[in-house]
Amino acid sequence: MSLPDIRVGASAESANGLPETIGASLDRLEREGVDTVEIPLLWLELVAGGKVMPDRLRELKAAVSGRPFTYTGHAAIGINFTSEPTYLPLHMSLAKAYLDIAGEVGCEHVVIHTGFYPPRCVAPEIARLYDQQRTACMRSAITRANAACWSASRTSMPRWATGSRRPLRNSPRN
Q1: Cα separation of 164 and 108, whole Å?
Q2: The pLDDT of residue 158 is above 90
């Protein structure tokens, strides 16, 4: 049996939130011999009102292109598929925008924290929120043109997101 390839990764940094400033960090990571870089999409000013800012996306693409890295991305932490249903369209548009950006820059994986709820929730409410979150996650995966950025297979999603029942807790884990 052969061992899987081991990659060394690090998160890139931006000096001021503008995509053009990530270049210096990528240069340093390249000198250090890193082969996988997480692009901190959450810290870069790329999305406004649930829409990708095209000029900023062009800046990011210019900064990351031609480099020897495999990229992953980390979307904004405030995306919440367990929010009040009134706000779900905004959270869906944010998730789509970050998935679109990740696809455009060639991210292999994207981290999206898809929900949080107040600790006062009781089991039936938590179950309803998980169902809402599962539906939103699947809708995001289906509507994303480049589905390679979203691993929605039953083996890669946490058990609570696949329909498997487990004891309900505030912090779902595999």
Answers
A1: 26
A2: no
